[in-house]
Design brief:
alpha/beta; Alkaline Phosphatase, subunit A; ten-stranded mixed sheet; four-stranded antiparallel sheet; 9 helices; disordered N terminus
């Protein structure tokens, strides 16, 4: 019979072995990156060697989707395993919005954390903070800590919205107490000239909407006063958040970790570091994409440095499809040339068409995912919550992740089948059912250039993606039974859990 000390040692050894077998998990979540923005997805406009390397060493999906055609609902769904339409607050948020994830809710980071993983979110957040009327001069909570992240370093909302400061562990980084921050999304505050009033002083002009507080020579959405020493410099943003992500990897290399690394590129304002300016030949948007690829390379180099590259599951994707002019005059349209950000897909960000949610999705997991594979399975980011917890060997609470399925088979096997159906949100809801796509009636955003709306008929539109990937031939009138079937299924999903 083992002595108590020997038994304790055996249990420790068993726990250590179990931890060693569980992979680290890194999600690289980019912003507004389209299906055609990456070389391994067909772009010939500029090089993305580090992202391409992930695909060469792993599995590249051709029919994977975020949940919504805008960022906040996609992020909510990924972290909660619940479709965002079930939460009426999960819309594009102002920088002053309260936290939209209930701290009592089970989330991907919280469940992994309970299973022994160290967890972090670094980069763009845009899920709200606090309980409303945030005091940015003290501790800001609830926030990432309350929903399961041990460490956070945030862009609180987006680069084009105030407050234009970083938040680390609940506090504004570099804040001078003698220069307190105030933020307003209603009444104007402060006496500094706005972007509308001092347009000729801006280093990047606005085209619509982004004409309030000026920070770093760029006007933003929303009003902000104070915090001068804490305000970010856009050109340094990628370097700053990547350094924090690399530090987290180094500090937690001895135990399993989950890192949600959320880049701001290529969201507006597109102001890449000087070393990337001109590298793409397509203006600031393409240069920011080259910068994003560099960020991926830095994370992979950090994993390799610490002997973790073969022990880490890495997922690369985007929160929605591409957009060109999104509020600033940055030559996104004018310098596009032959580059096609959405590839063969129709439309992009804000749209119910495939370009709104069909995004790059790459999985690299040595020993589990064979290199160089391509999967055509229908895959939804909504399934990452349950799938990743299963891979980590962590038990999921019974009521958690109501719309999330365990899709490990599809995540690792290019020949495995995908989801039978998937909801796509852009205000109203669209639906994929195998090769079929239902787009709701009333119209939706079309193309990537100036805002244009495509009519979809009162009853909605129906497309067969097997023969019409560009969604140009509406079959609703020809196949009323299929249209009715999809509308009925969508109502059933709306009424209850999907999983």
């Amino acid at each position: 019979m083992k002595t108590p000390a020997a038994l304790a040692s055996a249990l420790v050894a068993l726990a250590s072995a179990s931890a060693a077998e569980r992979p680290n998990i890194v999600i690289i979540y980019t912003d507004d990156v389209g299906y055609g923005d990456i070389a391994c997805y067909g772009s010939a406009s500029f090089e993305t060697p580090h992202i391409d390397a992930l695909a060469a060493e792993g599995l590249r999906f051709t029919d994977a989707h975020c949940t919504a055609a805008t960022c906040t609902p996609s992020r909510f769904t990924l972290l909660t395993g619940s479709y965002a339409f079930r939460n009426q607050r999960a819309k594009i948020l102002p920088g002053s919005a309260p936290l939209i994830i209930d701290p009592a809710m089970d989330t991907l980071p919280k469940v992994l954390q309970g299973g022994g993983y160290k967890t972090a979110v670094v980069g763009k957040w845009h899920l709200g903070l606090g309980e409303g009327d945030v005091d940015w001069n003290g501790e800001v909570k609830p926030g990432p800590r309350e929903v399961g992240f041990d460490y956070h370093f945030l862009i609180p909302a987006t680069g084009d919205r105030t407050p234009c400061v970083y938040l680390e562990q609940g506090r504004v980084v570099g804040l001078d107490p003698a220069d307190p921050i105030a933020v307003s999304y209603g009444k104007r505050i402060g006496d500094a000239p706005s972007g509308a009033e001092a347009r000729d002083t801006l280093k990047q002009d606005w085209s619509h909407g982004h004409n309030s507080t000026i920070v770093n020579g760029i006007s933003r959405i929303g009003w902000m006063t104070g915090g001068e020493a804490a305000r970010w410099v856009d050109e340094d943003m990628a370097d700053v958040i990547t350094e924090r992500a690399v530090n987290f990897i180094e500090e937690n290399r001895a135990e399993p970790f989950f890192l949600f690394y959320s880049t701001h590129d290529i969201h507006v304002p597109r102001v890449p570091h000087a070393r990337f300016v001109g590298k793409s030949g397509t203006g600031p948007r393409g240069d920011a994409m080259v910068q994003t690829d560099w960020c991926v390379g830095e994370l992979m180099a950090a994993l390799e440095k610490h002997g973790l590259k073969e022990k880490t599951l890495v997922i690369f994707s985007s929160d929605n499809g591409p957009v060109l002019d999104d509020g600033y005059k940055d030559d996104a349209n004018e310098k596009l040339g032959e580059h096609d950000p959405n590839g063969a897909l129709r439309a992009g960000k804000y749209s119910h068409f495939e370009g709104g949610t069909r995004v790059p999705f790459i999985v690299r997991w040595p020993g589990e995912v064979a290199p160089g594979g391509v999967s055509g399975a229908l895959f939804g980011q909504v399934d990452l919550a349950r799938t990743l917890c299963g891979i980590a060997g962590v038990e999921v609470p019974e009521a958690a992740f109501v719309d999330s399925r365990d899709a490990r088979a599809a995540l690792v096997d290019p020949d495995a089948g995908g989801r039978p159906h998937l909801v796509h949100e852009a205000g109203k809801l669209a639906l994929r059912l195998g090769q079929w796509k239902f787009v709701p009636g009333g119209g939706t955003r079309d193309e990537l250039g100036p805002w244009k709306k495509a009519a979809t008929g009162k009853e909605g539109a129906l497309y067969d993606l097997a023969v019409d990937l560009g969604e140009r031939r509406d079959l609703a009138a020809e196949k009323p039974e299929k249209l009715a079937e999809m509308k009925a299924l969508l109502e059933k999903i709306k009424a209850g859990a999907d999983g």
